[in-house]
Design a protein that fits this description.
Elements lengths: L1 H6 L2 H18 L2 H10 L4 H10 L4 H15 L5 H10 L3 H20 L2 H10 L19 E2 L5 E5 L11 E5 L20
InterPro entries: DEATH-like_dom_sf (IPR011029), Death_dom (IPR000488)
Length: 189
């Protein structure tokens, strides 16, 4: 149960994926990474752009190619990365990356709840690299106690709509946390 909760966070998934991409960029030649990137759907123009930006740093070029794949692919996950390595017969690298993944996973699971919370807070929001269709926004809203509805005050957008709210029904596919510093108020429909 703890494992599922800890690994359901998009920040954790992105963190693991970035660590593994760094490991791959250390292990595989830039020529093979360029071929892999092309097969994963990174356009040739973007590959050339990355090459021009990193003319003397093959490791950084490799990292940026794989990071571009993360940005472009909504389903960019650790397991998709494993599959891509296997499909391109990079088996030695795949074994090394799987071992690195197990090590990182064990480190995350070994953390106490307080350490895990601190660790998650230290992770940088990465503009939705694993959730490429989403963007982070900051807004003032109200959420019902059962976390099923969210109300967005309309006064912020239209001065004539005092006390009116846009009401949204929320669908949750994972866990949620409400920091103690935020007050919740039930939305009246």
């Amino acid at each position: 149960m703890i494992m599922l909760q800890r690994f359901s966070s998009p920040l954790i998934q992105t963190h693991l994926l970035q660590k593994l991409i760094a490991t791959i960029s250390d292990q595989v030649s830039v020529r093979r990474i360029r071929f892999l990137g092309r097969r994963l759907g990174v356009p040739d123009a973007k590959l050339d752009n990355i090459r021009c930006q990193n003319p003397n740093n093959a490791q950084e070029e490799s990292f940026q190619i794989l990071r571009e794949w993360m940005k472009r692919t909504a389903g960019a996950t650790v397991h998709n990365l494993f599959k891509a390595l296997k499909d391109h017969q990079l088996n030695a690298c795949l074994d090394h990356v799987k071992n690195e993944y197990l090590t990182l996973s064990k480190e995350i699971l070994a953390k106490s709840d307080d350490e895990f919370s601190t660790f998650c807070a230290s992770l940088e929001y990465t503009d939705g690299l694993t959730l490429s269709a989403m963007k982070k926004i900051n807004m003032r809203c109200y959420v019902s106690d059962d976390m099923r509805y969210m109300g967005l005050p309309l006064t912020r957008y239209n001065a004539n709509s005092k006390e009116r709210m846009a009401l949204y029904r929320l669908e949750w596919n994972g866990n949620y946390e409400i920091p103690a510093s935020y007050a919740r108020r039930a939305v009246v429909s």
